[in-house]
Fold these 2 entries.
Entry 1:
Amino acid sequence: MVITSIERQPRRRRRVNLFVDGRFALSMALGLAQEKGVHAGMTVDEAELEALRLEDERRAAYEAAIHLLSYRPRSEREMRQRLRRHNIAAGVIDETIERLRASHYLDDAAFAQFWRESRENISPRSARLIRSELLSKGVDSGTATSTVEGLDDEEAAYRAASKRLKAHQGESGDVFRRRMGGFLTRRGFSYDVIRRVLDRCRRELAGDGSPR
């Protein structure tokens, strides 16, 4: 079999289509084709074409994974789920995961710590809810539990409420408690924690001259 032509894809200029004996055989990254010295007139067999296809899929999977990690760390389960959306073969996904682990790009313990710190700094919520989120992302129970140890739910609830206090100025006590209480409930905090935090927030609003 002979590669009769190599054509760049019109919408994906970094990929090319290979035609063997006048028929489309496969698509691959332009860089891979250049690296492997693929050219028109080159003689190939089925095994060589399959090797090119597999190498292209491996590289595409790894590049997709690195792209995902450029936004934020991921758990192993998240990464597997996202790679499946690209219709990547299970074996190639396994190879990619192992490669990412070896490079320390995938580490569920480090991911869990990142998730905790992100929640603490940006979107405070209860230790119970953070643990539940970690479990849903595939972090094992022991790691999820140890990650949330030491979290202070009352302080987290207060930080979450403080970010919304201005929006509730002027509300009556009942309206304030219903709205802010509902918000904190959705963040996973217990009734007792919410009660104490709402009392603290109402005192602060009253100190600013707002009606009780």
Entry 2:
Amino acid sequence: MNIVKLEIKSSINPSSNASIKNTINIKNIEKKFIFFSKLELSSILNLYSKQVSKGNWRDYALDSKIDNAIFSIYRHTQDKPMFQIIKNSQKGFRGKPSFYIKKGEEIISKSKSLFTILSNFEKKLSIKKLKKH
């Protein structure tokens, strides 16, 4: 996966301070956005791949906002997300994030550790599957 950084270049003189201010503002905004780390994303995708192989899930989406990052899980592409795994941090990267799993508007699980949430999430999925049979 390649990450592309875009910078706004203005047509103002290079000696002008306006182009420097635009670049600084973009970098400050980028620091405030929350993203999943490589380890967090790989553990989420591991869970996702298991559920896809069972036929429970079919699609996902990733969103990054100023105060949270969201991994949405879909049964069908046009539906609303079945589940959302949310990483929330009000202080950006310096604050310790909290993780949630939401089903619709209901919060199923909440913790400071993603791995705790994912283990609870796998247990809940297997329990639901056992009750159906």
